[in-house]
What does this fold into?
Amino acid sequence: VQLQESGPGLVKPSQTLSLTCTVSGGSITTSYYAWSWIRQPPGKGLEWMGVIAYDGSTYYSPSLKSRTSISRDTSKNQFSLQMNSLKPEDTAVYYCKWNSNWGQGTQVTVSS
It folds into this structure.
């Protein structure tokens, strides 16, 4: 299974970030599979953001839940992350992941 993130590299504060993960080599609806978003701010550790399961159910980090939404497009075999009210501290490399399979990551910078 391969994953590839896509989205804007630069977002202004207070705006909404939208990232998409395109999955190949496997279906996002395969039973019991779960697809995650993880980020890593510069100089910091990995932060789990949330997950969407094979049945479309979602779970979020409590610290990000109020600003984060994960959805999917089964016709395109993609799942997406939306985060609103962005702050400079949301600057990070954002990854999508399934089990031990990670996307290459996409840099998102929040700056005016």
User: Anything to note?
Assistant: The two ends are 36 Å apart (CA to CA). DSSP finds no helices and eleven strands in the chain. The longest strand covers residues 17-24.
